[in-house]
Amino acid sequence: MKTPALIVSGVLALLLAGCATRRVDESPVAAGQTTFATKEEVAAADEHDDWDTVAVVEVHDPIEPVNRGIFWFNHQLYTYVAKPFSKAYKSIFPKWVRHGIGNAYENIKYPIRVVNHTLQGRLDRTATETGRFLVNTTAGVGGVMKPADKIPALADVPKADTGQTFSKWGAPHGPYLVFPVLGPTTTRDLVGTAGDTALNPVAWVGLLFGGAAWTTAISAPSGAHGVPDQMDRYDMATKDALDPYISARSGYIQYREAASER
Amino acid sequence: MKNIFFLLLGLCVGAMTSNASTEAAEANLRSTIDQVLVVTKKGKGGQSMANQLTPILVRHMCFESMTRRAVGPGWRQFTPEQKAEATKLFSKLIIRNYSKKFTPGELAEIEFLKPSSPGAGKVEIPTKTVYKGSRYNITYRLEDRGSWLITDILAEGISFVANYRAQFDVLVRKGGAVAVIASLKQSLERT
Known about the structure:
By secondary structure, chain A is mostly helical. Chain A is 63% helix and 6% strand.
């Protein structure tokens, strides 16, 4: 287990430039990265200068102007297409239907979680995840309901994905990227998404039946279901921001850091 | 032998003090959240919600330290008047931002998890919150400043203060206190 982990993390480390969350009293950052406070600044602080209690997110964003352009495009898309869609979707489908659809798609993605728990060496979580899947698939009618949430031993298992696994293996985030429609990611998470897609049974349907149209048709309800939640999160991250781009970037990196640490 | 006795005694006293701290902090947080939920259950949305939550949040959040830490080392460049103004404006933004997280009438189920104490006078209380059918990991950071006050809230690992710190940092480097205050005013003017 260790050998492939080391090889993959080594290759990723070579491919990706660094990006991490640091406390401000650590070493100054390299040129070209967004800087916050240097060691000297912290050292000169008076008794109330407790800025180091805040973990500052340091992001490698080498194509920031391009990313900002795509962020602006996405903002227009979210405002004029995704939000009206989200509103209509919510008004057509009652809450219990929406949750049922979301639960079922979440349940189908079991291989992504179970493989990554295993690759992260968390066999206890592999077992719990498997228990959840069995209970939700059988008693929960194909995962539409989540009876496992009522069983304390199965109720709480953190999600796992391939990007998190790379993080556990020591791979840095790499450059921050914003994609049209899809939004923010990092090079590490982009490679991770490819791994997640390969592990997603919804994607296998396209391979089995010989066409991307099948995959699109089957994953469309999942995508539609996710839009309202994503719009809520987007609003939360950007609505009262001084700079929505930086707020979304900081939020994304912090979120992924926290997910990897769980 | 004597040394071991004092060492054990010290450890016991330390553990008891720490437990007392975390219990007091948790009791304070529970009381704050209860008060907030009463308002969000019965109150109206928008500015009305923010107005009703303001007296509760003013009592239980430490806006001064939140502003100072969000601005970072650039805070030293601020005059006392600029510090006061930035704190006032940022407090309004925090309250508005926090108020928007709630939908009137929606109930939240909150499970308090085991608190930890990262340092003297500091307590972190993780929670599992179920709100509008979704589960969130929300952690509250509190500090003992005479009473236990909230100094940061982390939703799914995203620190409220760190998120603003990333934004303020650019402004401080660009235009110091003037740019920070102007940006806060601009943000508050937006609906």
